Amino acid sequence: MNRKIITSAHGGGGTATKEIIDIAREYLGNPALDQLGDSALLDLDGTGIAFTTDSYVIDPIFFPGGDIGKIAVCGTVNDIAMEGAKPLYMSLSLILEEGLEFELLERVIASVASAAREAGVLVVTGDTKVVEHGRAGGGLFINTAAVGRRYEGCDTSVSNAAPGDLVVVTGTIGDHGVTIINEREELELESGLKSDVAALNTLVEELLTSVPGIKSLRDPTRGGLAAALCDIAGASKAGIEIEEVKIKVKREVKAACDLLGFDPLNIANEGKAVIVCSEDSADEVLKICRDNEFGRESVLIGSVVSEHPETVVLRTTMGGKRIVDMPRGENLPRIC
Amino acid sequence: MNRKIITSAHGGGGTATKEIIDIAREYLGNPALDQLGDSALLDLDGTGIAFTTDSYVIDPIFFPGGDIGKIAVCGTVNDIAMEGAKPLYMSLSLILEEGLEFELLERVIASVASAAREAGVLVVTGDTKVVEHGRAGGGLFINTAAVGRRYEGCDTSVSNAAPGDLVVVTGTIGDHGVTIINEREELELESGLKSDVAALNTLVEELLTSVPGIKSLRDPTRGGLAAALCDIAGASKAGIEIEEVKIKVKREVKAACDLLGFDPLNIANEGKAVIVCSEDSADEVLKICRDNEFGRESVLIGSVVSEHPETVVLRTTMGGKRIVDMPRGENLPRIC
């Protein structure tokens, strides 16, 4: 009998991960879970809240631009923000290996503290477990969960995109994923590249409190820009058309992708947002984003169309068109 | 230079774990975190909520009486309940190893679903990560976080015990920890022993809505009854005196502890509560507990005293007295 087993692809955030989500939905399904957003949107005595969780297993633990502590805060803060909520409270759960140096743990906790302070969230509860040496990835894993309060009247669901809307990305893509693979595989790419890991809650708050035309928000983490756009197109039952020439990819990211056969569209980002907005609000969206330190290089990359529903199409620099598929997920394990 | 490293004791829930909590408090400290309860108690637009997290690294994954999925739900539900709140929403984050069988994962998720349904909580959000074979303990780790609503006017903090109050335990102690060590070390104890893992939120709700005299609640998990009582005595700045003859320990648990040199007071439980209540409410507390399927063997084990503040004293069966220390935490790693 051929028994089905977990592979690294199942952690990649693409179609393979969906197989696990399907099992979870089969057994646990309820209206809140079935939204499948970055956070669950819930009602608590009339207050709209968002609730999310993420585990972080990134290898290496420290990398240019950040570390597992910073990413554990920013990733979870962003999951709350993308659902149109203000992150308030966070939990911190540590799975540590025997033999881990206290000094390293202290550096990680200091980084959690600094990122939480910057994002304006309080770490209010936690847990510590210890496992045998080598049994927590080679150092430590972190889980964070967070609770936020929804901004009133805001709905940023991936199902809201409609033909005529425009698509903005808040900067270059692929920086995080290529930084990690560069560290891990010792590619020795030209120095200077670092992860974009950042908390985007302030940027999102500025957008949601000033621009009425925001339709959908998503952070293109695992599975990259491709997965985020496929999610939006699928949930909105609309087509999306993007232009390759508009998408900003750093030279060293492009070089690494060429070398390794990766598509920059599939590479994880940890400090970027995909914003779908009405056509008449796009100028204001771009202005607000470019005025924010984490959105300086924001750019309009395409639009939502009535053709090819549920499908993302890329107009290539060469003038051709190709379909952008939901990545399966195997190319970069332990990226966050 | 002698560098300090993490040892299994740091995961034991005793004094060694406190060293890590101290680092966390140094960097992250805020009034909610500093309560150091099983959950953080927070205010959200006038609604009192409880928020908690726990990671589960138990080895083996399946054991008599339960599995990692059931314990991940019950443990987190109990952390919310012990703080005087009703668990509502839960997150489920999986860290899976490459090579894990889908069938095993499905059994665990089915167990999560069944335990959540029984406890009346909804799993509303989740995450999946995959790491290399052997790098998630030898199978999988689970993190759950939960949000609950506080019962109005209830304060079950460990700091509320006062001289004259009585101490109730809802059944036999040590069943969970000894079940796990029996499985892991193949002690081949007489069959029939199983983990007590259970969600106690219904029992707690019955108590809090019927008896006004509940002072403190705590579930004696890692560190066992000793750690729970030391926490209460310490936080309340009161003494606690308990009687060995009153404490129920199953024969096979006692035998295993004798064999291995463990103290049953230090062994983890996963379906028990320690209840401190006013003297005049003790009869009603015992009645409610004994009428509940998870409290049939509830028993009064001692009282809060004005002597020896912050110290727990055991009157032994032989008529002597000994101090019950906060365990350091090394004897049973990966117990939950």
Description:
Two copies of one chain form a homodimer. Chain A is an alpha+beta fold. In chain A, helix 4 links the parallel strand 5 and strand 6. In chain A, helix 3 (68-82) packs parallel to helix 4. The first copy, chain A, has two domains: 31-150, PurM-like, N-terminal domain (60s Ribosomal Protein L30, Chain: A, 2-Layer Sandwich), CATH 3.30.1330; 158-324, Phosphoribosyl-aminoimidazole Synthetase, Chain A, domain 2 (Alpha-Beta Complex), CATH 3.90.650.10. Chain A has nine helices and 14 strands. Chain A has helices at 15-28, 31-34, 68-82, 102-119, 175-185, 201-210, 224-236, 251-260, 282-291; strands spanning 40-44, 47-56, 62-63, 66-67, 85-97, 122-131, 140-150, 166-169, 214-218, 239-243, 274-277, 299-305, 312-315, 321-324. The first copy, chain A, is globular, with a radius of gyration of 19 Å. Helix content of chain A is 31%, strand content 26%.
Largest sheet of chain A: 7 strands, mixed
- The CATH superfamily of the largest domain in chain A appears as PurM-like C-terminal domain
Q: How many β-strand runs of chain A? A: 14
What is the chains' assembly state? homodimer
Reading the helices and strands of chain A in chain order gives: HHEEEEHEHEEEHHEHEHEHEEE
Could you say which overall geometry of chain A the principal axes of the C-alpha atoms support? globular
The poorly predicted ranges of chain A are none
Total count of domains of chain A: 2
The DSSP helix count of chain A reads 9
Which sequence of strands runs across the widest sheet of chain A? 9-11-8-12-10-13-14
Beta-strand residue fraction of chain A:
25-35%
- So, CATH architecture of the largest domain in chain A? Alpha-Beta Complex
| First and last CA, distance of chain A | 34 Å
